[in-house]
Amino acid sequence: MKLLLVLSLILTAALLLVSFAGAAELAPNELGRVMILEYHKIDYPEERWTRTPENFRRDLETLYAKGYRLINLGDLLDRRITLPAGTTPVVLTFDDSSPGQFRYLESNGNVQIDPKSAVGVLEAFIAEKPDFGRGATFYVLPGASKPNRLFNQPEYEGRKLQYLVSHGYEIGNHTLWHANLAKYPEATVRAQVADAQTWIQRHVPDYRTRTLALPHGVYPTDVSWVLHGSAKGMSYSHDAVLMVSGGPAPSPFSRTFDPVHLPRIQAVERELAYWIGYFDKNPGERFVSDGDATAVTIPTARRDHLRAELPHPLRILERKP
Ligand SMILES: [Zn+2]
Prior knowledge:
Shape: globular
Structural class: alpha/beta
Number of strands: 16
CATH topology: TIM Barrel
Strand content: 15-25%
Bound molecules: zinc ion
CATH class: Alpha Beta
């Protein structure tokens, strides 16, 4: 009996060592790339623009097991990545405020978040794995027709937007009703962007969207129209414009990081499997945190990829490959 106990202790220690060694393999590289995942519908059945709740949950499990940790897009833009050493940031985005992204269920006068909606799945997973982090940006459509108007439960529109903001999520601008911005003159483009923020502010006073996801991935004639300005008495200012494809984003510390053309990865089976597998095979291309928020750790060989100016004082640490 005693021998068994000793043996099982040795085995456990060996397993722990192996898993620790696995995690420790990733050397810090804060010039590596970052995945910004783009979800649309969370619903049934699984199709081109739909991920089932079960598959979404599986995505989170896979990302967690492989050392990815959630950060908000705003933190990426601010270059404030305060993750433990050896982990990799990942950003979640949800476009179009479709019903399955955030649903409340009522029973006997009780209201609760549908555990099969994206927010329900995410909250349950974060409760189980608090070190996964927290964050996601919801690119909502406040003026769309049904079913994509603010998650399709008019009575809970305000409650949902307030919930997101008070639980560490971001609300993003996706225009008022998903306008194809290439088709419209400046005044219409600006009104689409400003009106979206006005409608969001009806529910969350003073909330300002910090980023914009292009409907259909289509840029307006002049991108400056969606970056800063005002229309109908509402001023807006965006730090980033998100595309609908393009692969992983460059590191925010890299020269090639361009917030006005931020690429995303569509969170469908093929794309996810491809990119997660890609970084498994090419771990040197993945952003890996050094665990030190005051420093940027980069491989010496990639020194010339570092941006010339960084927004706040950061020490630069070089690492030989
Ligand atoms: Zn969209």
